[in-house]
Specification:
With 110 residues, the chain is an alpha+beta fold. The chain has four helices and five strands. The protein has helices spanning 5-23, 29-47, 66-73, 81-90; strands spanning 27-28, 56-58, 63-65, 91-93, 97-100. The radius of gyration is 13 Å and the shape is globular.
């Protein structure tokens, strides 16, 4: 599996933008992780391939995409500095919520 930071950030940005358009609030980190898992599962059932190609780990109550979680948490020890700059360009993190800063770059999706 290949680390595709731009695609992962745009997936998070897509869900954050949709949440902001419908409820005018920031999206919760847990909701992003659940939506990514559900989107990957449905995409796998229909097209036989994943969207984010991330490593999933079983946590207490849900499967979690580790790369997406690191991006949501802005874990600087797991991400290079250019990744942090790219994340800060598109996403703004509050305690456990994420707001989009820019529109979604749909060229990252296939």
């Amino acid at each position: 599996m290949e680390f595709n930071l731009k695609k992962w950030v745009q997936v998070i940005n897509f869900f954050a933008k949709k949440e902001q358009e419908t409820t005018w609030t920031a999206i919760d980190k847990l909701k992003i992780l659940k939506l990514v898992w559900i989107a990957d599962r449905l995409h796998l059932r229909k097209y036989w391939k994943l969207i984010v190609w991330d490593n999933y780990f079983a946590m207490k109550m849900w499967l979690v995409a580790s790369g997406i979680k690191n991006i949501c948490d802005k874990k600087e020890d797991f991400l290079p500095t250019n990744a942090i700059i790219y994340i800060n360009e598109y996403l703004q993190k509050f305690e456990n919520s994420i707001c989009p800063k820019k529109d979604v770059d749909i060229s990252q999706f296939s």
